[in-house]
Amino acid sequence: KFFGSREKQNSIGHISSFISALSLLGVLLVGIAFKNIPFLADLLLLDEGITEVLRKSAFTVILVRAAMGFDMGLFRKANGVIFRLGIVSTLVEIIAIVLAAHFIFNVNVGMAILLG
């Protein structure tokens, strides 16, 4: 046993996941600081194309890290809940937008569906 008992292994796992979350939070805060604090923004001059690639890759890293923590067994058990949250709520929102556009702005239903 390299790390000792099971409790020690679990605590080491929790600490390492907490440190990983803190590093991601630190990277996000530094990015926000460089974008919004004027004297820091002047220190880092990058081309717009490079910043766009960096933003997309950072977003991809965040999504991949979040997806790696998912429990697929839990998704299989909560299949109906996921469907209701993902599909039904979207359909209710679409219907509300179409009805609001039709009755408030006097847009016909076909145009409200196309624009909404």
TrEMBL record:
InterPro entries (UniProt xref): CPA1_transporter
Segments traversing the membrane: 12-34, 81-105
Superkingdom assignment: Eukaryota
GO BP terms: inorganic cation transmembrane transport
Keywords associated with the record: Membrane, Transmembrane, Transmembrane helix
Entry's family note: Belongs to the monovalent cation:proton antiporter 1 (CPA1) transporter (TC 2.A.36) family.
Name of the molecule in the record: Na_H_Exchanger domain-containing protein
